[in-house]
Design a protein that fits this description.
29% strand, globular, 258 residues, five-stranded mixed sheet
C-alpha cells in the first residue's frame, strides 16, 4: 500500500510519496498534473498531459440498486473535462448552495497509449494501454442530478463541474489482477464503501474496448471504472481515506467552497 508515508505493497517495493502540485495556477487553484506514486511510472505520468475523464455509471449492480436505478445492459458513459481534475490529497472542496454533494470512490486508470475502435481487440492488447492505476472520486451534486434526470437533461452540471474529479497519484499497473482489486472509502473512521472489481458488470478490458468504440482514448486521459454501493453526502470537516487494496491509500479533508 502506498501512503503519504511508508506503505507495504503486494508484489511491489515499499515506496513513499507526497502528491505535490506543480506548474502554474489556473483561476484560484493550481493547474493539475498527473503524478506517480512509485518510481516505475514517475517519468511517464509526469510527461502525460491532463486529458478528459471518461466515467462509467452503474458498473456495480449494488450501487444501481441503492439509488433505485435499473441495472444497465451496457455501460453508461459520461465525460468530465480536464478542468474537473484536482489532486485528491489536497483539501476536497464541495460547492456551496447546490444541495447535497455525494462522493463516489472509483478505481482510476491512466491511459498511456492511444486506444480507438478496439472493441474487437484482444484483452491483452487493450490492457497494454494502461499506464497507471489509482483512485478517483466522482463528486456528484445529487439534488441537481435528480432535477436534470427528471427533465431528461444531461448530467454535466451535476457531474463535471470544476474540481469534481479528485485523483490520487498513480502506481504502475504491473502485476495487477484486474478482477481482484479491492476498493474502500473510510469516512470519519467508519467504512462507507467496500467494493471488489470482480463485481463490476463490465470488467476493465472490455470496458476500455467499449469506450474506445465511441471516444478515442488518448495518452493522459483517465477512465473511472464505476463505484460500489455506499455513496453518500459529504459535509465540511469530514475526514476521508480512500484505499486501493494494499497498493494505495490517500487521505483528505472536506471543506466548503467559498
Amino acid at each position: 500500500m502506498v501512503q503519504n508515508g511508508a506503505g507495504q505493497g503486494i508484489g511491489l517495493p515499499v515506496v513513499t510519496f507526497q502528491c505535490l502540485w506543480r506548474g502554474f495556477f489556473m483561476f484560484d487553484r493550481p493547474l493539475y498534473r498527473h503524478l506517480s506514486a512509485d518510481h516505475q511510472g514517475a517519468k511517464l505520468a509526469a510527461e502525460l498531459p491532463a486529458g478528459k475523464v471518461v466515467c462509467v455509471g452503474r458498473n456495480y449492480a449494488d450501487h444501481a440498486r441503492e439509488l433505485n436505478n435499473p441495472v444497465p445492459d451496457e455501460p453508461i458513459l459520461f465525460i468530465k473535462p480536464s478542468t474537473a481534475l484536482v489532486a485528491m490529497d489536497r483539501p476536497l472542496e464541495i460547492p456551496s448552495g447546490q444541495g447535497e454533494c455525494h462522493v463516489e470512490t472509483e478505481m482510476a486508470l491512466l491511459i498511456g497509449q492511444t486506444l480507438t475502435r478496439s472493441d474487437q481487440a484482444d484483452d491483452e492488447d487493450v490492457l497494454a494501454a494502461i499506464a497507471g492505476v489509482g483512485l478517483g472520486f466522482d463528486l456528484t451534486l445529487r439534488d441537481l442530478q435528480s432535477t436534470l434526470k427528471t427533465k431528461g437533461l444531461p448530467w454535466e452540471k451535476a457531474k463535471a463541474f470544476d474540481g469534481s474529479c479528485p485523483l490520487s497519484a498513480f502506481v504502475s499497473p504491473e502485476g495487477v489482477q484486474w478482477d481482484q482489486v479491492t476498493l474502500q472509502l473510510i469516512r470519519n473512521g467508519q467504512l462507507q464503501q467496500d467494493g471488489h472489481s470482480s463485481h463490476m458488470i463490465t470488467p476493465v478490458a472490455r470496458l476500455l474496448a467499449y469506450i474506445s468504440g465511441f471516444f478515442t482514448l488518448l495518452p493522459g486521459d483517465v477512465v473511472l471504472t464505476g463505484t460500489p454501493a455506499g455513496v453518500g453526502p459529504l459535509s465540511a470537516g469530514d475526514q476521508l481515506e480512500a484505499r486501493l487494496g494494499e497498493r494505495l491509500s490517500v487521505s483528505t479533508t472536506v471543506i466548503q467552497r467559498l
